[in-house]
Amino acid sequence: MTDSNNVTKVAVLGHRGRMGSEAVAAVERAPGLELVAALGRGDDLQNIVDAGAQVMIDLTVPESTRENVRFAIDNGIHSVVGTTGWDDRALAELESQLAQHPDVGVLIAPNFAVGAVLAMKFSEAAAAFFESAEVVELHHPDKLDAPSGTAARTASLIGKARREAGVADSPDATRTDPDGARGAVVDGVHVHSVRLRGLVAHQETLLGNTGEQLTIRHDSFDRISFMTGVVLGVREIHRHPGLTHGLDGYMDLSL
What we know:
255 residues, Dihydrodipicolinate Reductase, domain 2, DapB_C, lysine biosynthesis
C-alpha cells in the first residue's frame, strides 16, 4: 500500500532499542519510504494510525509484539516483525485474525540479514545428506532469549527436511546430562547458545558424516546488516497479504 506519490509511510515500534534505532535510520535514508511515527514502550499505538502509517516495523519485546500486531491488523496496517515470542498457538491466532483482513500482510522474520536467510536455506538443503546435524548460535550477552529465533527456525527447518527424507536422528550416546550440556533440542536437533561480550549475532550449522564435516556459518558484525532485509520487507509486504514466516518468503531462493 503506497500513497499517490508512491511513498510508503512507515512507523517504527521500539525505536529506542539497538535494532529500532537502526531501523529508524534505514527508513529515513531509503528512497520511497517516509518515517511518520517512532514509538517506544508505553506510547499510545493510536499514534501510528493518526500518522497515517501503512507499514509498522515491530522491533519491541516478546511481551508487547502480539498486541502491537493485533492492533495493526485491526487498523489495516501491514506489519514487519523482528520480535521473537511467536509460538505455534500465537501464529495460528494471527492467521485467524488475518483471515478477517485479507488485504493485510504480516512478515515475521527470525532474521533480517540476507546472509543469515541464505545460511538457513543452505542448512535446510544440506540437512538430509548428513548423519549428524547441530546448531550453535553466538550472541551478545544482552540478548534476552535463548536459543535465538534464527537458531530455532534453522533447527526446525533442518528437522523437517531430515524427517521428510527419512533420515534418523543424529547419533548420540549421551545417557547423563544433568546440567544440559548438550543444549536445547528443537525438532530433534541440538541447539547451543553462547553469550559473550564483543559478539553481535553469529551462527553455525554443523553437519557431519564419517570422514567429513560441513560448516555453514553466518556472522553479523554490525546491526546495520539487518536493515537490507527490513527495508525489503517494508517494500514488498503489500504484495504478500496474510502471514509470511521468514524473509525467504519474499526472496527467490529456488535452489
